[in-house]
C-alpha cells in the first residue's frame, strides 16, 4: 500500500511528457470546470443477525481561472443488535435491548487553492470530524500551506504539500481533559495514476507533527482503485488508515476503513 507513491512517481518521472511548458502568450483561458461524484455502499442483514452498515462519500470541485474549490465528505455508519454474551445467538433479552450504534465516522473538508503557476499553489482548508468511537465528539481544524506538482501529465499526477494545521478537539464524556487545541505541521505526498481510460488508482499519505509535543504525531493514508462500468458509473475499492501515536485517552491508536462502493458521476 505505502509503496504505491514512490513506485508510480519513479515511473512517471521517466516518461517523456512529465515536464511542463509555459502556455503560449495570448492563449485562451480555460473554461470553468465543475465535477461532482458520490460513493455509496451498504449492507443490511435481518433474522438471525441484525445489522446495518453504510459507507458513503461525496466529492465536488469547481475550477476557474487560477482557482479551485473542493469539497470532500465521508460517512461510515453502523448499527446492530449486539450479541452481548458472545454466544453467537441473539436471545430475546438482547433483541429487547434493540439496535445500537456500532460505527459513526463523519467528516467534511472544504479547500481552496490559488495556483501561482501550473505546478505551484497556496491553499487554505477548513474541516470537521465527528467519531465518538475514536473519542472525538467533534474535531474542527483549519489549515494553510503550499502545494507543488512534481509530475503532472495526462496519466500521472505526483504532488507534495507542506502546511500548518490548528485543530480544536472536543472529546466524549469521560475523557479527561475533555478538550484540547493541537498545533501541527502537515506534510503530504499524493499520486494519481490512470492505467488506461477505464482503470485508475490514487494514494495520499499525510503526516501531522504536534509542534508542542513531538511525541504526538498522526499518519493518515488513503488508497483507492476505481474501474469504470459506464460513463457515469464506476466501482471503487478503497482503504483508509488513521494512526495516532497519542490517541484520545482510553482509545486505540489505529483505525482502518475498507470499502467497496459504487461511484456515480453527477457532473
Query: What would the CATH topology be?
Result: Porin
CATH H-level superfamily: monomeric porin ompg
- What's the total number of strands? 12
Helix content: under 10%
Just give the CATH class. Mainly Beta
The CATH architecture comes to: Beta Barrel
SSE order in H/E notation?
HEEEHEEEEEEEEE
- SS strand fraction: over 45%
Which ranges are low-confidence, i.e. pLDDT below 50, for 5 or more consecutive residues?
15-27
Structural classification: mainly beta
Distance between the termini: 30 Å
Q: What is the residue-averaged pLDDT?
A: 90
- Rounded Rg: 21 Å
Which word captures the global form? globular
> Order of strands across the biggest sheet?
1-2-3-4-5-6-7-8-9-10-11-12
Number of helices: 2
The number of domains is: 1
Q: Quick one: biggest sheet?
A: 12 strands, antiparallel, barrel
At a glance:
The chain is mainly beta and 267 residues long. Helices cover 6% and strands 63% of the residues. It has two helices and twelve strands; from the N terminus they run H-E-E-E-H-E-E-E-E-E-E-E-E-E.
Structural summary, described in words:
With 267 residues, the protein is mainly beta. It has helices at residues 4-13, 92-97; strands at residues 33-45, 51-64, 67-81, 99-115, 120-131, 136-152, 156-171, 179-194, 199-210, 217-228, 233-244, 254-265. The protein has one domain (4-16, 34-265): Porin (Beta Barrel).
